[in-house]
């Protein structure tokens, strides 16, 4: 079964060290997440694969790493100070503060055309609070999404030291256009790529790492002659869609959506979204916009911008004249892409039927858990509802729902209910013996590439050879680990769950002929390869 709810992914991520809730020792900070040991490897691999594809493998691209803090004027002339906002409404009944455009879209089945249309709907009582259902909503107001901070040793309380935490990496590229052009002696068309943090004070963050206030972007600004922009736009749409496909994302979960005219940002001539079918529905993964010459002109000295020191333009040798290039911007999120790859790779399955007796025992315990959770006082109503309905549906579907029980057993809210101890006592062993959870990640994205085990951990010769092999693989640049903390079957299961494509077992035959067993995560087939040739053989499969 693929991941049908984000909770399944959240639970796997926490259990196996991909993503933890941030500042959890102090109760957390809503919608902020820390990437753990495996999560950081996965996300780094996503960023590396992107960089390789858009910088190293192309002739027409350069990289950049601009500062997060920039002169405030960048955000004045880019238009962000005046327009980078979301419309927000307050519910007078329950004090919730939802995003008015999202409420409009959910309740009227289409996106609003702008603030006046949202406010007309609020006034006509056609919109209701998504939390309590009241139609007593305040008129929507724009809420600027940029985080402010100040530079310098003293905060004087005025705006003299005001700077923003960049809400996108793109502006760092535009203001460096001239620097890159001059130093790298580039001719049009060419592009600049950058990966880095961006910050937005989102009104409604959520859906795990899909929408957070601090996130990472992977952005390209591709500069072309005016008139060549439309073809370049098509080229990048195809290129970026292929990238996800080449890294294993299933075609049926990826689609291209043309933005409507009223959705377009003020600077854009056309924008296409690449959308992924997340468990919560189709949502944006990456936006690919034609930004025309808006940004380069905005940061050039003119009557409208007396603060810029010069002009951002290009001297066309062929036409012997200056021109302002048009820009195509493929703008992706590293966190969203990582989440999409995780969702796409997830699969759990019942590999063996537990005995009727075990199933019945477990069903009784999970039903008892559901009743207990339902009676629990002082628990958040939404959490309680989630626990009860999850447990009821698992109990009704056992043994087929056994893989889902793992998530419930590891849910920290469920742990506060006494019966969970008993469920775990019985359920953990049954789940371990009868289910298999696999992340079918592309080998280049997997946090670990290869795990090496000795057949017996108390045989010094096997341990020595396995450890040596692991070191050889590491030296060859592969992400390899050694593990001897369980029986081979258990070790395979642990590696499957985190997406390790190959497991190597060193056995007694290995001591004689230097051959080892290589077990493939997806096919579960085993083959024997010679240890000295292993690094080269696996590296070859990573290309
Ligand atoms: P959305 O409509 O989802 O708010 P957006 O259209 O504002 O996104 P862009 O400004 O086009 O997003 O940003 C480019 C990419 O950066 C998005 O496609 C997404 O992958 C990522 N991104 C934007 N905002 C966030 C966020 N709050 N959390 C995580 N990733 C984000």
Fold and architecture overview:
- A hairpin with a 5-residue loop joins strand 21 and strand 22 (526-530).
- The model has no long low-confidence stretch (mean pLDDT 94).
- The strands form seven sheets. Strands 3-8-9-15-12-11-10 form a seven-stranded mixed beta sheet, with helices on both faces. Strands 19-18-20-21-22 form a five-stranded mixed beta sheet, sandwiched between helices. A two-stranded antiparallel sheet has the order 1-2.
- The chain has 19 helices and 22 strands.
- The longest helix has 20 residues, at 37-56.
- With 543 residues, it is an alpha+beta fold.
What's the helical proportion of residues? 25-40%
Oligomer: single chain
Largest sheet: 7 strands, mixed
The average pLDDT score comes to: 94
Bound molecules: adenosine-5'-triphosphate
- Contiguous helical run count: 19
């Amino acid at each position: 079964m693929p991941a049908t709810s984000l909770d399944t992914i959240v639970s796997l991520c926490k259990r196996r060290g991909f993503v933890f809730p941030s500042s959890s020792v102090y109760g957390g900070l809503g919608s902020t997440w820390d990437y753990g040991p495996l999560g950081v490897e996965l996300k780094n691999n996503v960023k590396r694969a992107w960089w390789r594809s858009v910088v190293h493998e192309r002739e027409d691209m350069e990289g950049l790493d601009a500062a997060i803090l920039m002169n405030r004027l960048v955000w004045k002339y880019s238009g962000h100070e005046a327009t980078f906002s979301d419309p927000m409404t307050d519910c007078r009944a329950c004090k919730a503060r939802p995003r008015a455009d999202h409420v409009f879209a959910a309740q009227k089945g289409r996106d609003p055309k702008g603030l006046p249309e949202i406010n007309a709907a609020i006034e006509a009582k056609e919109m209701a609070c998504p939390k309590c259902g009241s139609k007593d909503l305040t008129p929507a107001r724009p809420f600027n999404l940029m985080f402010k901070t100040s530079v310098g040793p003293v905060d004087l309380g005025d705006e003299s030291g005001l700077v923003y935490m960049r809400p996108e990496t793109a502006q760092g590229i535009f203001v460096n256009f001239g620097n890159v052009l001059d130093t790298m002696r580039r001719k049009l068309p060419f592009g600049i790529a950058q990966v880095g943090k961006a910050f937005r004070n989102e009104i409604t963050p959520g859906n795990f790492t899909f929408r957070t206030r601090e996130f990472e972007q992977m952005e390209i600004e591709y500069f072309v002659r005016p008139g060549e922009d439309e073809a370049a736009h098509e080229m990048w749409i195809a290129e970026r869609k292929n990238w996800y496909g080449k890294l294993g994302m299933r075609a049926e979960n990826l689609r291209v959506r043309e933005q409507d005219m009223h959705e377009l940002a003020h600077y854009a001539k056309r924008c296409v979204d690449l959308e992924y079918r997340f468990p919560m529905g189709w949502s944006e993964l990456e936006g690919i916009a034609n930004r025309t010459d808006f940004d380069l002109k905005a940061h050039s000295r003119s009557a409208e911008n007396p603060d810029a020191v010069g002009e951002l333009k290009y001297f066309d040798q062929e036409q012997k004249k200056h021109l302002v290039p048009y820009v195509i911007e493929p703008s992706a999120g590293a966190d969203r892409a990582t989440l999409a790859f995780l969702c796409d790779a997830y699969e759990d399955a019942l590999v063996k039927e537990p005995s009727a007796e075990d199933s019945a025992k477990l069903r009784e315990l999970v039903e008892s858990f559901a009743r207990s959770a339902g009676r629990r006082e002082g628990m958040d109503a939404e959490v309680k509802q989630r626990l009860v309905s999850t447990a009821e549906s698992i109990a009704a579907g056992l043994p087929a729902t056994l893989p889902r029980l793992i998530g419930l057993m590891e849910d920290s809210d469920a742990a506060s209910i006494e019966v969970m101890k008993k469920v775990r006592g019985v359920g953990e062993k049954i789940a371990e013996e009868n289910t298999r959870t696999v992340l079918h990640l592309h080998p280049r994205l997997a946090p670990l590439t290869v795990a090496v085990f000795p057949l017996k951990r108390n045989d010094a010769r096997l341990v020595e050879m396995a450890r040596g092999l692991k070191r050889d693989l590491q030296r060859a640049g592969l992400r390899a680990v050694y593990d001897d903390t369980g029986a081979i079957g258990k070790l395979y299961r642990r590696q499957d769950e985190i997406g390790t494509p190959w497991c190597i077992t060193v056995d007694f035959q290995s001591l004689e002929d230097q051959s080892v067993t290589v077990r493939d995560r997806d096919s579960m087939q085993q083959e024997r390869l010679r240890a000295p040739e292993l690094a080269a053989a696996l590296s070859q499969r990573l290309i």
